[in-house]
Amino acid sequence: MSDKVEAVKKLFTSQSSRVETNKGDTYYQELFDKCEARLNEMRSHQPANKLDFADLLEENGIDRREFMKWASATTAMLMLPPMFTPLVADAAVLMNRAPVIWLELQDCAGNSEALLRADGPKIDEIVLDIISLEFHETLQAASGHQAEKQLEEAMEHFKGKYLLFVEGAIPMAMDGQYGTIGAKGETFHDHLVRCAENAAAVVAVGSCATFGGIPAAAPNPTGAVGVMDVVKNKPLINIPACPANPANMVGVILHYVLTGQVPELDSLLRPKFAFGYRIHDNCERRAHFDAGEYVEEWGDIGAKNNFCLYKMGCKGPMTFNNCSIVRYNDGVNWPIGVGRGCIGCSEPDFWDKYAYERPMADAKIKAPTGGVEKTVDEFGLGMLTAVGIGIGIHAAASAIAGKRENSGESHE
Amino acid sequence: MITHELIERIEGEAVLDFKTDKNGRVQDAAIRFLHFRGMEAILEGRNALDALVITPRVCGICGHSHLITTVRMIENIYHNAGVLIRISDKAQSIRTVTLSCELIQNHIKWLYLVMLHESSKILGKEPAVALKALYISSAVNQLCALFSGQWPHSSYAIPGGVTCDPTHIEVMQALRILSDVERFIDDEVLGCSPEVFEQAMRDNKILSLKGDFGTVLRNFDTLGLLEKGKSHGRFLVLGEAEGVILNGVRNRTDITLVSEDISQTFEHGGKTYAKNALYQGEFYETGPLARALVQKRSGVSDLYRTYGDSALTRLCARVEEMVLLCTQVRQLLSSLDLSQPSFIPPPAIESISGSGVGILEAPRGSLIHRATIEKGKIISYSIITPTQWNLGNGIASNLGVAQRAMIGADTIAKASLIFRTFDVCSVCTTH
Q1: Of 1.20.1070.10, 4.10.480.10, 2.60.40.10, 2.60.200.30, which CATH number belongs to A279-406?
Q2: Residue A144 neighbours by CB distance under 10 Å
Q3: Which of B 107-146 lie inside 8 A of A, CB atoms?
Q4: CA of A90, closest CA in chain B: separation in Å?
Q5: CATH number at B2-430
Q6: Cβ separation A335–B154 shorter than 8 A
Q7: Which CATH architecture has domain A20-275?
Q8: Most buried residue, A73, B47, B293, B352, by most Cβ within 10 Å?
Q9: What are the CA-CA distances from residue B137 to residues A37, B101, B105, B143 (Å)?
Q10: Spatial separation of the C-alpha atoms in residues A33 and A41, rounded to whole Å
Q11: pLDDT digits (tens, 9 = 90+) for B4-36
C-alpha cells in the first residue's frame, strides 16, 4: 500500500503534464487526413441510435451558425487547430455510430446525473443524447433481467468496438462482496473485468472510478480501488472529478469518433485537452492571487470582492482540470464562483490530502510544477511558499495527519 | 414461486425477491440492497467541517440535501455546546432555494424517467425519450448552481451561512429560469394552471388532466393500480413542519423515538446492506405524501380521504409538492435582502465538543445526520436516509412500508411499479 501511495505521489508530482499546443503543420496535416478517412468510414456504419442530430438541433431551436460556433469552441477545447472545425462538426453528427456501454459500480450515480444534463453546454447535451448509450444502469430503457440480456447482446454485437464507460469504484475487500450486481450476484470486480474484455477502450468517469474516490478514502472500509487497478492490457482513459464534467466525457467520445484513438494522456491517464492545465492557471480570481489579495475568512471584505481563495484552502494551484474554463451546469457557475475553494477532486487521494480548508502548505504534498507558463508558475510557486508560511498550521491538517498515521499510511 | 427482480434505472440497483401464488399474485416481497461504501466510517476521525464536502457524495441525486443536513447538524452541535449561531435571513433563504431546486429536479426526473416510462412500458407502449424533462431539470440545476456553484455535489453552505454573495443579476437569472420551469409544469406536466390542478384534486377529477401527469395517472388506471399500493397509513415528517400521523391522529414528533434496526443486514445473517429506520419501533412512511398530510394540504388530503395511501395519492403528493415548491422559490427569490451578510462567523470548530443532530426534508423524506465531535474532530457519525424508512425490509409480522404496499399485486411487474412510486434510491439507502 505504501509503495502504491508513493508511486501515485511520484506520478502526481512528475513533469509529464506539460501540454504541447503546437505540434507543427506536418503533424496536423497528417492527423487531418487520417481523421477525414476515419469519418468517411464511420459514415458507412449503421447508426446505433435512432436519434438524429440535425432533427434534435432543429427541435431545440439551434441553427447551423450556433452549431458551428460550438464546433469551433470544441475544436479549441480538444487542442486542435481551427482547420479541424468542420471535422469536429461531422464527428458530432456521426457520434451515434459510437457504441457506448456504461457501468455503474460503487458510486453515488453523481456522474450519471451530470450526464443527465446536470450540466454541459446545450449542444453538448444534444451530443450526449445521440451518443448511443447502449447500456446504462440508470438511463437505459430496459430494466431488470431484460437489461442484463441487452447488455450481453450489446457486448456481443459491438465486440471490440464499444467504449466502456465506468462510474464508481471497485470494492476488493471481502472477495468483492461489498458490491454485487445482476441476478447472479456477480461482484463489481468480475462484472467490470468481463465487460472490459471486449471493449475498444475503457473510460473511467469520476473520482471513484479513476482513483477510488470517496469509498477509498481512509480507512477505505471496503478496500475500494479505481478501474486502473483492475483493468489491465486495455487502452484506459481517466476522466476524474467529482462529478466529472460532461464536456470532458463528450470530448473523449468525440475524439474517439474523430480519430479512432484515445486522446493524448498525462501520466495519470487523463486527457491532456482537459487536464493539461491547473485550475489556477485559468482561474477568474487569478489576478487577485498575483496581487496578493486573499479571502482571510468566509464572508469578509475579500469574499465580497471575489478575492483569491488560496488561504481558505483552495486547491486550484495543484489541481489539473478545466473547470475554470468549462465551468459547470451549462457554464452557469462553478465552486470558486460562489466563493468556495477547489477541493482538488480530480487528483488522486484528494479526500485524504486536500479536502476542505487545509491550505496547500499543510497538505503534505509538493505542488506540481508542470504547466505551460513557466515564468508565471515559478512566480506563483514562490508566492505559495510565502503565503504558506504566513498561514501557519491548520488544525484540520493535524487531525487528518493523525488519522492517516493510525491507518498505517506513510507521509511524504 | 420465488422470483428475483432487479430494479434498475434508479441510483444504484436494488433486488426484489417475490413469492407468488399459482396465479402470479405477489404473496411476499423482500427488498435487498447489495452494495456498500461505509460513508460513516470514512467520516469518523476527520475534522467536522470535512463532512460538508464528504456527505454530499452519499448521493448523486440528493447530495444537496445531505449538505444542508450536515450544516444544520454542525450548527446544532454549536448550539448544544452553548454557542449561539446566527444565520442571516438571506443565507437561510438561499439555502431553502437551492434545496427546493434539488427537490423539484428530482420530482421531474422521477415523474418522467421512472413513472411515465415504466408505466408505459408495462402497457406495451413504446416509451418516448423524455428529453424535454431532462432539459428542464437541467435548467433547475442551473438555478441551483447560481447560488451553490454546481449541482450535483456542491458544498457552498457552511456553519454560519453560505459562501456565495449573489447580486441582483443572479437573482434575475434565477427568476428567469424559474419562469421557464413554471411554464413547463403548467404546459407539459399538468396541462393546466396550478389552480385548476388543485381544484381537480379537490373535485376528484384528476384523471382528466391533459398533461403528462394525466397520462401517468391514466396508465395506472388502465393497470388497475390507482387504488393499489396501500401500506400502514402511518406517516412521519421529522424535518420542516414536523409531525407524525398514527391512526389518523397527528402529533408532534420526538427525535429520541427514532431507531435503526440491523436485524435484516448481512451482519446479522440477513440479505441486505440496508438498515431499517423505525419510529417507536414501527415502520413509517416518509416523503411527499407524509409532508402533504402532516401539513394538511387540502388537495392531497381530500384524495387521501377517498383513496387512502394508494399509488394515486402518492403520485399526486409528489407532483403537487413540485408545484408548491416553485411558488415558494419565487417568493424567497423575490424577497431576498441582498444587503444582509451571507455569513456570520462562528467560533472555530476546534473549540467545540459535543453532539448534535441535523434533520431535513429531502426529496424522498426525512433525512437525519447525527454526530459527536471532540475539539472539532468527528468521533462518531450516523446517517439515516429517507429510503431507509420507506424501503425497509421487515418480517411477515411487521412489514416495511413499500414491502406491504407491494403484497397482493396481480403481477411482479405491477408490484415493481408500486415499489417505484416510493421513488427508490439505492445509493442513499446503504451509504
Answers
A1: 4.10.480.10
A2: 21
A3: 109, 113, 117-118, 121, 127, 129, 131, 134-135, 137-138, 141-142, 144-146
A4: 23
A5: 1.10.645.10
A6: yes
A7: 3-Layer(aba) Sandwich (3.40)
A8: B47
A9: 39, 9, 5, 10
A10: 13
A11: 887 776 666 888 999 999 999 999 999 999 999
